[in-house]
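=== Structure Prediction Worksheet ===
Name of assembly: unnamed complex
Input type: mixed (protein and possibly other molecules)
Chain count: two
Listed entries:
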Amino acid sequence: MGLLSLLSGLCRWNNNDEENSAARSFILSSVLWLAFVVSLALILATKFVWPDFLGGTAWLSFGRLRPLHVNGALFGWLSMSSTGIMLYILPRLTGVRLYSERLGNLTCLLWNLLLIGASITLPLGYTQGREYAEFILPLDYLFMSILALLGYNVFKTVARMKDKAMYVSLWYFLGSLVWMPFTYMVGNNFLMDTTGLGGRGPVPGVNDAMLNWWYGHNIIGMWFSTLGLGIFYYFLPVLTKNPLYSHRLSLIGFWTLAFFYVWNGQHHLIYGPGPDWLEDVAITFSVLMLIPVFAVVYNFFKTAQGSWHLMFDNSPEHLPVRFFMIGGLAYFLTCTQGPFQALKAVNSNLHLSYWVVAHAHLAFLATFSFISMASIYYVLPRLLNTSINLRLAHWHFWLLCLGLIIFLGILHTAGIVQGAMWLVKLEEYDFVTGSALFKPAVEFIDIVRLLHPFYFTLWLGAGLMATGVMLFVVNVLLTFYKADSPGGRLRSKGA
Amino acid sequence: MYTALILFILAGSIICLGGIYYKRSIVLGILVPGAMLLIIIAFLSTAVLPYMEKIPATDKGVPYSERALLGRQIYVREGCWYCHTQQVRPIRTDAGLGNVSQPGDYQYDYPHVLGTERTGPDLSHLGGKYEDDWHRNHLMNPRPKTPEEEGMAGKVKGSVMPPFSYLSREETEALVTYLQSLR
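=== Predicted Assembly ===
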């Protein structure tokens, strides 16, 4: 019943001009998609322990659910929640109403259609076969129009601003909306129809790999990071109750990020078949990335100084702080990991191992998802004029953190183990030429067998995290339900 | 090429410093063109410049047969490339996996299947390593299910590969042809 009324509420809001209704629709949708991708994550983790689990069915096989998990988490949960929070923040930073709530709600509806489309096409095996860009062409066009509508709405809002001095969050939001359409277009074969080309595409395979990683890297840097940092910079002073330490520093961070980030794509293919000079350029710029990262991190630590105790405060008012602080710390971790992984010596040991998977989860789950969750906990009571179930939220936090520590610890360790095992070689000397021939000393399958206990522990960690996240979803849905029930604010206004 | 690269980096630095120097006034006029230019400059340097480089032909970079191409499409569709790489790097980690990959090897690979992660072994030089039957058995179910299957060709104990028993006979044959063509 609750769910039905929620869904009808979602449809009702689609044609709604009420203030903040777009932000509300986006947050509700993102949370529903979160529940979906977390269930997928659990299925995938189970498949590592019991590979025959749901096997033998085409649309439930690992290779088809994995892209749905990744794209759902990125474009469903993270993009939608960030957008929703951005739409909440915009009027508060610009001092004017959102240009069109109706347009925002329509964007949200289209976005949900996009993800429903992806949830059908990906399991059926319709894919572009490029990481992070698996959506087929019609969905690409839909997503480009969504971005155009969203950009129009946001830029129109900012153009109405009277005070032309903008807080750094707005810079990041506008930057994201400028960069994202170009990045997405490049990553999706320049929006060309490439099906049925028979192996020979518009560019040779090696350049295709470069373009793919140009995109795969920049979608994180110019969309998820920038949206996330915009939200981060808004809530940093709000939650720590201190003024931002330095605007100049945040600005240096913004422009150096805009400059350095886009050159790094090739560090995903170090020692690969691409040109060496490009790898050197990518590594140089990866190390330079420490500048924007430490601009953010230094600002974070200086602003948060003296407010760390709020993390341990159990009052409802300070509930978001702990999620936010963990997000900030994880940002520090994941963004120092990045340049360090790009170094050739480190990369040759860790690349292609589970370390990469750990790094991705550290960035998307521990950093930006935590920031999104903190923001939702902050925004929802204000949007819906109700309170959040504190007990559920605390369970959410501790289960998620415990699961995360197990999950990330095990994944990083597994990566190091894999890298070390791959290095073990038998040397055969050729006494005629004097050169040495190396052969793997450990059979590949023996490394897989060695990882079985890791897979099992991962599954346990994933189970804990999934439970925590599901509590979050239930909590948010209950909050919406409470607001929508008789006596709640929404119903009483007859909206 | 290097001149262009250095010019691009210089241009980027100027925009970047200009943005920082301009502080927060007249932001929209600076932000939108500045942000757009920075991403385009980086795109030109890291995607267009390498595209202009000549790729020497190699023995591995030859067109696929029709059936192998169909198999390649299935390889892409089933997401084999999520867990199997097709790149051999000139480093100790990859020593003994076969010839180091050259750019020309991928001349006919679109979309590319270089991969990012090795849950399973690298497949660059898989062709000819096993019999066709080994692959058929392995794809049907990679693990021995009954005592009789233990020791059977293609049944690997402890493998975590998903079973592809749902592929039709033609699809399996095409996939095997593709796998055998990787030399």
